[in-house]
Specification:
Chain lengths: 146, 400
């Protein structure tokens, strides 16, 4: 049960049940789609960027609790951040999810640190981040985590 | 009910009390199968059909002995049994060695919408190479094939019909005897993908009368890397080889060669000897229990599991065919199957979650994935109880 709680922390369950910024964005400056063929997870990520600042992020799609919570938490952290900070956070998140190493300024993203112990679920956690990164850099082609 | 858990050492190895419900993916191995593989490697690990010394002859006898056992299991002549690495390779063999030689542009390959990818992709590739057209018999909401208007699918252009015997998603046992007959009536060849049926019910080639039939060792308590392609001898004789190399030849010159007799014509290179011997041991084990007893055991578990699972609120079971195997695909409302599988794993319960190598079925059902519980000889009603208890617990944990 301890292991279980390490992966499915209460915050993850909450974000899964009530995802934040789970909506379409009509005035998005960019959007990208992500797909995890193994699980069938699908995400559409919307970004609104003005003067190198992310003023709004939202997502839609379907997926497991890990992918949904990861996307939800990500959106809450990125709003108001500069593009550069978002890129830096993306790299730190990637390191955390593949090694378990938590940087100081990860904030609530740390609840996903346990995922690194479950290699088959890493793809679920990173899907939204990869899709966001592609949207940020104007990559409109489909992101896949396979 | 059968009580054979003691024959499977994995149940001693697992720290937690282990409930294995993924036999449609692969089965666990009894000690006798493991011993047969170890015996070959430790006592007579020579190549087959090559050398004139004692252990090579023993290896050849054991390897060919397994072929005879596989032939007997499906009531087929021994020379009609080609060893492959599994169902997938068996179907690919037909698609290459029969399909590419005999199919022309405009010919129709008839499949169903409930095929496993292993009986879909080889034909997609074959159709691209030959210009043949793929057609599909659809399935109904209950997971049975819609054969209400067969003339629409079986016609003079139909050259090959390939159909899954027992669905790995719905469990549906398809009416292959009828389908094979309809294929033959229009002059088509019929292949049956029996990966899920041969392990679970008596399968008699003379009854089905198909031209080809494919199954895998690892889904019937045997090792991975060994499977069977049954082919009618007169068809196998006419086909060109699939892979070239040693063993499959008779006389070789630098510019040309002649082929070995069937079935060895299709077994190029050193085969999976230990795995074939292990398959023989698996067939012995199955025969000892008796296929009828296995089928009865499966059916009793299936009935019990369906009743228990339908009692759980928010559980949707896919497929409700009258004749079906012990496979249950299901979803729990608002819980992704991958979360479900992960959470059941904490209780020592292994189910499959995903698209089950049948993405077109998932698309038609309108889901990205399902959970799947599948049963075999070592499962008990207690396993079903454990699954259902854990399902209820999981719903609660996820906030349902």
């Amino acid at each position: 049960m301890d292991n279980l709680k390490e992966l499915y922390q209460q915050m993850i369950l909450d974000h899964n049940q009530n995802p934040q910024n789970f909506r379409e964005m009509e005035n998005a400056t960019s959007k990208a789609e992500g797909h995890n063929p193994l699980c069938g997870d699908e995400i559409t990520l919307f970004l609104h960027v003005e003067n190198e600042i992310i003023t709004d992020v939202s997502f839609q799609g379907s997926g497991c609790a890990i992918s949904k919570a990861s996307a939800s938490i990500m959106t809450t952290l990125l709003i108001g951040k500069s593009v550069k900070m978002a890129e830096s956070l993306f790299n730190k998140f990637h390191t955390m999810i593949t090694t378990g190493e938590i940087s100081e300024d990860m904030g609530k993203l740390a609840v996903l640190a346990g995922v690194y112990k479950f290699p088959s679920r890493v793809k679920c956690a990173v899907l939204s981040w990869h899709t966001m990164n592609n949207a940020l850099h104007g990559e409109t082609s489909l992101t896949t985590t396979e | 009910m059968l009580d054979v858990k003691k024959d499977f050492p994995i149940f001693n190895e697992q720290a937690k009390k282990f409930v294995y419900l993924d036999s449609s993916a692969t089965t666990l191995k009894p000690q006798t199968v493991i011993d047969s593989v170890a015996d070959y490697y430790s006592k007579y690990s020579a190549n087959v059909h090559r050398s004139i010394y004692t252990i090579s002859e023993k290896a050849t006898a054991a390897y060919e002995g397994s072929r005879s056992k596989a032939a007997k299991l499906i009531n087929a002549p021994t020379n009609s049994i080609v060893f492959t690495k599994g169902t997938t390779e068996s179907i690919n063999l037909v698609a290459y060695a029969w399909g590419r030689k005999n199919l022309r542009a405009g010919d129709e390959i008839l499949l169903t919408e409930m095929e496993h990818h292993s009986n879909l992709i080889p034909w997609q590739l074959c159709a691209k190479d030959t210009g043949a057209i793929l057609r599909f018999i659809p399935f109904n909401d209950d997971g049975t094939l819609d054969l209400s208007d067969p003339d629409q699918y079986f016609n003079s252009k139909t050259k090959l019909v390939s159909v899954i015997h027992q669905s790995n998603v719905f469990g549906t046992v398809n009416p292959v005897n009828d389908i094979v007959k309809k294929a033959h009536d229009v002059g088509a060849i019929a292949l049956v993908d029996a990966a899920q049926s041969v392990p679970h019910q008596p399968v008699d080639i003379t009854d089905i009368d198909c031209d080809f039939l494919a199954f895998s060792g690892h889904k019937m308590l045997g090792p991975t890397g060994i499977g069977v392609l049954y082919g009618k001898p007169e068809l196998l004789e006419k086909m060109d080889p699939f892979l070239g190399g040693g063993e499959m030849i008779r006389i070789v010159s630098l510019s040309d060669s002649t082929w070995n007799d069937i079935p060895w014509k299709f077994e190029a290179g050193t085969p999976n000897i230990a795995q074939a011997i292990g398959l023989g041991a698996a067939i012995d084990y199955i025969n000892e229990i008796g296929m009828d007893a296995i089928h009865k055991h499966d059916q009793e578990l299936l009935k019990y599991a369906l009743e228990k699972m339908r009692e759980i609120p928010n559980v949707t079971v896919y497929g409700s065919a009258d004749e079906r195997g012990a496979v249950i695909s299901f979803n729990v409302e608002n819980i992704h199957p991958h979360d479900l599988s992960q959470l059941l794993d904490y209780d020592g319960i292994a189910i499959r979650a995903g698209h089950h190598c049948a993405q077109p079925i998932m698309k038609k059902l309108g889901v990205s994935a399902t959970g799947r519980a599948s049963f075999y000889v070592y499962n008990s009603k207690e396993d079903v109880d454990r699954l259902c208890e854990s399902l209820v617990k999981t719903v609660k944990f996820m906030g349902g």
